[in-house]
Design goal:
Structural class: alpha+beta
Oligomer: single chain
Distance between the termini: 65 Å
Helix content: 55-70%
Strand order of the largest sheet: 1-2-3-4
Order of helices and strands: HHHHHEEHHHEEH
Strand content: 15-25%
Number of strands: 4
Shape: elongated
């Protein structure tokens, strides 16, 4: 009985210490850690990062694209195949910080125009078939065509190098939050333009 009570007490103390350490780690997050977590989270499509920045149209697109799992996985792999980054400098004052980050990513600037060509060709070639009449089949094929263009761009090896400035604010509780913009994500994703749904 005493051993059981002592074991419960020790476990309770260990759990409370671990929880406090977790909270301290969240609160003490530095701007550098925030940028690193963000960039790595995007590259690895970590759910907690995606959910935090879902208001951004690019993040929303990556996280919520509808289609065959394999097709979506191929797109995500191609988007981040040539992606790398280096935090060059961070300037911090009070509750505001800006990180200067060098980004290398695939050049996806021509994906949308190439997609428009091949999707137009697909529609005209199949105008009188059931594939066009069935919206689900048409959407699946259009996603397939878009992903093929993303893959072609990634396979070409063309890389864009750019410097982005990542603004952050310290919320006082959980550390540094990145102020997300479409321009930031457009640079991270190599000037990718999304198809209109």
């Amino acid at each position: 009985m005493i051993v059981q009570y002592t074991a419960k007490t020790v476990i309770s103390i260990i759990i409370s210490i671990m929880m406090q350490m977790g909270v301290m780690n969240m609160i003490s997050t530095t701007p550098h850690e925030s940028v690193t977590d963000f960039m790595d989270g995007l590259k690895n499509r970590e759910t907690h990062v995606m959910e935090k920045y879902m208001d951004d149209s690019y993040v929303n697109f990556i996280a919520n694209v509808q289609g065959d799992k394999d097709t979506v996985a191929r797109m995500n792999e191609a988007l981040f195949r040539n992606f790398s980054y280096e935090v060059k400098e961070i300037i911090e004052k009070n509750d505001v910080a800006v990180a200067k980050v060098s980004i290398k990513s695939g050049d996806f600037s021509k994906v949308l125009s190439e997609y428009e060509k091949v999707s137009y060709q697909y529609v005209t070639d199949n105008l009188y078939t059931d594939d066009i009449a069935d919206k689900e089949k048409l959407n699946a094929q259009c996603l397939q065509l878009y992903v093929q263009q993303v893959e072609k761009a990634a396979e070409s090896g063309a890389v864009l190098e750019t410097i982005v400035f990542v603004p952050m604010v310290n919320d006082g509780y959980y550390g540094w939050n990145i102020i997300m913009t479409d321009d930031l994500m457009k640079n991270v994703l190599g000037n990718l333009q999304m198809p209109v749904s």
